[in-house]
Amino acid sequence: MNYPIETQRHSIAHVMAAAIKHLFPEAKFGVGPSIENGFYYDIDIGRPVIPEDLKAIEKEMKRIISKNPAFTREEIAIEEAIKLFQELGQTYKVELLHDLQSKGTTKVSAEEAMDIDPQNVETVTLYKIEDFTDLCRGPHVTEAKEIGAWKLWKIAGAYWRGKAENPQMQRIYGICFETKDELAAYQNMLKEAEKRDHRKLGAEMDLFTFSPLVGSGLPLFTPKGVAMRQALTDFIWELMQPYGYERVHIPHIAKADLYKVSGHWDKFEDDLFHVSSKKTDEQFVLKPMNCPHHTQIYAAHPRSYRDLPMRLSEVTAVYRDENTGQLQGLTRVRSITQDDAHVFCLPEQVKDEVLNLYRIAEKFYEAFGMRFHRVRLSIRDGSHPEKYLGEDAVWETAEKTLAEVMQSVGQPFEVGEGEAAFYGPKLDFMVKDAIGREWQLATIQLDFNLPERFELEYVDSDGTKKRPVMIHRAILGAVERFLGVMIEHFEGNFPLWLAPVQVAILPVADRHNDFAKELMQELKGYRLRVQTDFSTESVGKKIRNAEKMKIPRMLVVGDREMESGELTIRVHGQQDQMTLTKEAFLTQALEEIEKRLV
Q1: pLDDT tens per residue, range 511-564
Q2: Spatial contact of 251 and 275, defined as CB atoms under 8 Å apart
Q3: Which residues are catalytic?
Q4: Is 157 in the same domain as 235?
Q5: pLDDT for 32-91, tens place per residue?
Q6: Is the link from the previous residue into 347 a cis peptide, with omega within 30 of 0?
Q7: Is residue 565 located within the same domain as residue 511?
């Protein structure tokens, strides 16, 4: 029987736990879910896990699989399960069972959360392989040999339940695919990804830094990093302006009441940074998203159908109290700069607005050599309409509209039933980077919830008051995350338009410095990002340094250049030099930047 890869990954996590229990009888276990490309298990063996342990665990896993034991499922009363895991000394499992019994959820992680009505939690399921029994929802394969190709990968620290005040555990990651070829391809991709790690390249290229005094997950961007951020956000604004978007500006804090009305308080309370004031008893938070603020700009004046669509845009930071163990370079931070926009429109305007947003996103990603690899239309779970806000007819029209937009542009899409947000259907756009990794970056979402909660209205042509449709959209999403993806996508070898430093001027000797200064100022007048190396290093060393910093264009200036007025140009990554007039160089460079060539 061919089992889904998620089932195989979950099963190999169970085998790993069994192997760990054999090698470390006192080991205590947290959770061990299937994740994208593999699996992990959080464990506590009383000391840090070391690479030698990983080898021993893998060897024991192979021994277990060679015997091809069966996975057996048992359903028992929750009280009996609590007693069993207390006897086994599995304190973490006991805690999960108590939560499940009292709250109906374990709330461990996005992968492992068990959300069940507390009134219905009478039994739980156990899975056993050989002599190892685990609390688990399953499903698992029938026999161990039905698991595909796998390999243990790495060790990381993880606080129990993601909270710093809880015990520190060890998270052992593994990868698992259906075939050995798929596993080998993924391992090669991991090696390439390690070379491209944005944390390493970002430090080497002086794009951003972190400070323990500022705090984890709060990146500090250098002038070079800011140049890239500005290039990205300027590009998006350039694409949006023709479609009638207008800029707005909102504060970074708000009363908690704003998020209580929007519904975000109940959903994200644990992820909010709370702000106190000595001047008032009112409760404030750092804003975790911008959409509630933007509703209040809409609500500031009476609106007519003639005023719509109303398109508001802003690049601004939001703040989310992410678990320390989940922070990772720029791809998971606490200070998130969103390229945000919200459209308030009539229902009959939705199709045109979504089409415009699609065109913007399409043009944006073309500038990075990316096309939409996969598009998902996320719709309601038709069997549970009670989970979603809005009337059936509104949902059906909205879902049909999004599908028609994709069909009109010839964009294939898959339907994700049950993947819609409770407030409306959405389109999620996935792209692949240079080494084949898939990233979900752009999204277009329809929202019936916030207009309802904030009682937003417009006066229609017949004089009646109606609710507008709100469209949320992200093109690059979080600037920090996108920049991390781009560093790895290009391996730091950015196209000329995006590079933090576009041109390096390299004087051969000190007597050429004044000429280099004049040239630098002239090029800056064309809004080129230029730096000059005035060090006493040899010109060969200056070239090597500029190559190391991956600067796209290098201009070597010496006696010949001063006398002739022509420029000697080196292109990053190429050995050959070329000679152009200054005018020809400028024409070529500015055209490449304007067209945003990759």
Answers
A1: 999 999 999 999 999 999 999 999 999 999 999 999 999 999 999 999 999 999
A2: no
A3: 291, 320, 338, 340, 342, 426, 472
A4: no
A5: 999 989 999 999 999 999 999 999 999 999 999 999 999 999 999 999 999 999 999 999
A6: no
A7: yes
Structure tokens at 439: 């990233």
In angstroms, rounded to a whole number, what is the distance separating the alpha carbons of residues 415 and 407? 13
Task: Give CA–CA dist 53/246, Å, rounded.
Answer: 57
Binding positions for Zn(2+) are 291, 342, 472
CA-to-CA separations, 467 to 264, 298, 299, 305, 399, in angstroms, rounded: 20, 12, 12, 10, 18
First to last CA, the chain: 46
- Looking at the domain assignment, is residue 277 inside a domain? no
pTM assigned to the model:
0.86
Number of H helices, E strands in the chain: 18, 28
**Residue 424 CB burial class (10 angstroms; 0-12, 13-18, ≥19):** buried
- Residues 330, 452 within the same domain: yes
In a domain, 204, yes or no: no
Give residue for tokens 């019936």: 448
**Strand pairing class (34-35; 38-44):** antiparallel
Do 462 and 507 sit in the same domain of this protein?
no
C-beta neighbour count of 39 within 10 angstroms: 28
Query: Residues at the annotated binding site?
Result: 291, 342, 472
DSSP string, 14-57: HHHHHHHHHH-TT-EE----EETTEEEEEEE-SS---HHHHHHH
* CB-CB neighbours of 560 under 10 Å: 13
Same domain, 19 and 42: yes
Instruction: Determine the Cα–Cα distance for residues 39 and 136; give it in Å rounded to an integer.
Output: 14
For residue 253, what are the CA distances in angstroms to 9, 124, 478, 533?
Answer: 42, 43, 19, 43
State the residue for tokens 């972190």. 210
Phi-psi group of 221: left, alpha or beta (phi > 0 → left; psi -120 to 50 → alpha; rest → beta)? beta
Whether residues 149 and 179 share a domain: the answer is: yes
Please indicate, yes or no, whether residues 144 and 184 belong to a single structural domain of this protein: yes
Residue 488 structure tokens: 């790895």
Write out the two tokens for 467.
Answer: 């609710």
